Please model this.
Amino acid sequence: MKLMKNIALAAGFAASLLATPVLAQSALNDILSGGVLKVGTTGDWNPMSVRDPATNSFVGYDIDIMTELAADLGVTLEMVPTDWKTLVNGVVAGNYHMTGSASISPARLKAAGYSHSYIEVQMFPFTTEDKLGNFDGWDSINQDTVRVATTLGTSFEAMVKEWFPDADITVVEAPARGFQEVLSGRADVFVTSNIEGAELVAKFPNVRQIPVDAPREPTPIAMLLPQGDQVWINYINSWIELKKAQGFFEETAAKWGL
Model:
């Protein structure tokens, strides 16, 4: 009888183990045990993240933020090159623990989590100096004679398709960019954030912002994170709030002219 009782108790214990959900290891544990923070970045969003092809190194606002985060974690920073169309997939697949700055969008929210926001952008249309006289606002762009260029997988792609249904829209794939199509004369207009737009106007004397009554789509910017990893999300959110209080984000934005 005692043997049967012990067998029954053992079977019950085994069943309870099977019924208890196994908690998945957080990315935070992986980072601390492995000593490396892997961050996905596109390297084509100036001044947020810019890649030097000769050295395969990155510089920019995002890189400074991630360098600080890795230092506070006490680990090495590894920037993982990606592109806009696979940015979310890389987080979901575990190719990197998080991304640098990305606009918050409903489409991305379906598959990935976000950190708290730490900066906001607004959207403006741009063209070249020789075509500036053709446009006098947002509505002037939505014409079948106007060629609008955008980059596959970016939030701008969805925006221009919604805003300019009558225009001739060209979608290019990274490393090509929509603004390059306009500079080359293959398109007339591109839309980007006030942050990147200011950099492009400064870099290319031919680029001009189209006058509009107001910018569109004020968009908070945050880091993409694994959707189900609340431990890692909580850590990052607490870190962001701490660094905000210490003035780190404000100082870093000023450094990069944001």
